[in-house]
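Fold it.
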Amino acid sequence: MPSSRARAIAPTAAERVRSILTVSHSMTVVSDGLRSEVHRLNGAGTTGLFHLHAPCEGPDAPSTGRVPVRLELTDIAPTPVRDRLRARVTLAGLLDAPYDPQSEQSACLEFGQAVLEDATGRSYVTLRELERVEPDPLAKSEAEMLTHLVDAHAELVPLLLRLVRPVPNDGVQRALPVAMDRYGITLRLEYPSSHRDVRLPFTTPVTRVEQAGPQIHALSAAARRISHTSHLLA
């Protein structure tokens, strides 16, 4: 009996936010009217400096003293595509004490809301949704894998274009990989005055980083089986 739920081919907003929070290298903290640039996330991401917890409610909830804070993060493409900003994440909440930009200790952040903004629009993510998902298994290695694909296997990108439907027209000036996650790889097609992104889903979502290479090879093999009827980017 077929499943009533279609197979996922792209990460949800919650998965993207969780991954960005986990692998971020820097962020801006806005509190008490001050903006602090933080660049010492050291592989632990935002969650290494801020522990998220549910809003305090009930008679034991503090009525005063909590400090509003906003965390601002950007997701930047590792490849030299046009418009490298892939997404913005804004996380708002409350701290028990004023934010100290010099502190190395993790602070408890009472979750308010998380917002993901990208080319498709704005999505709001709840704490429960964040807690239900894991960071993408490719998130920490994505930049290295994409730059390796561009630098060492550039011939694969025009090949992968054979899989794009509908078939791109001859106006494409350049195509580069812009993102890769457990569900597939995204190519950015650049035109003279615009661009668009197309996803090529993997046969099955990956669960470990070492599975990404075979999935790319599977896409390449599928592309080779398609007759090359266009001189696009040849």
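The longest helix spans residues 212-224.
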